[in-house]
Design brief:
By secondary structure, this protein is mostly helical. Helices cover 92% and strands 0% of the residues.
Length: 87
């Protein structure tokens, strides 16, 4: 195994992680930003006001993107098993 192939595998793994986790993280970040702006405008400083909507949003996005995420992870695992078989 050459250093280039190790770097390629690491890049593929990081890309897969970003693609799978990205939608949930972006949704949570957007909800947090919207709630922060609302809290700054109304001067309400309640911690559960940010925590609960973010968790619910991440959960909903997870449910929506779960089939796609599973296919991405399955494709990654298949590619890694194929690489191991070729060695």
């Amino acid at each position: 195994m050459t250093p280039e192939s190790v770097i390629e595998i690491a890049q593929y793994a990081m890309r897969t992680v970003i693609f799978v986790a990205g939608p949930m993280l972006l949704a949570g970040m957007m909800v947090g930003l919207i709630i922060s702006i609302f809290q700054a405008a109304t001067q309400i400083n309640e911690m559960t006001m940010t925590f609960v909507p973010k968790i619910l949003t991440v959960f909903v996005v997870l449910i929506i993107t779960l089939p796609w995420a599973i296919s991405q992870l399955t494709g990654f695992a298949s590619a890694m098993f194929a690489r191991i078989a070729n060695m």
